[in-house]
Amino acid sequence: MLVEGFNQVMSWVSVGLLAFALCAFVNAAVHREDAYRAADKQSKAFWLIILGVAAAVNLFMGVFGFLPILGLIATIVYVVDVRPALKHASGGRGPRRGGSSSDGPYGPYNGRR
Fold it and tell me: Where does the record place Low complexity bias (predicted)?
C-alpha cells in the first residue's frame, strides 16, 4: 500500500514536470529569433532542442534518473534566466505595456511615497 502511494505521488510529480517543460517549450517557440540575440542568450533553435529533449525524456523516463534531472535544470534555467531577458528584449512588461524606465514591478519608482 505504501509503495502504491509513493508510485502515485511520483507519477503526479512526473506529470507536473512534463507540463512545466512543455510550457517552457511553448514559451520558447513563441518568442522571435531576434529577441534571443537582443537578450544575448543562446539561439532559439538551441532552447527549442534542449527543452524538447527535456520534455521527451520526462515523458519516457519519468522522474527517476540522471537525464530527467538535467532536463529539469535546463527548464529552470530557461524560466528563471532566459524568459525574463526575452520579455525585456521584446519590450513586454506583462499585462501592462509601456511605462517609464523607472517603473518597478508594482508601479513607478521615483523615490517618493
Answer: 98-113
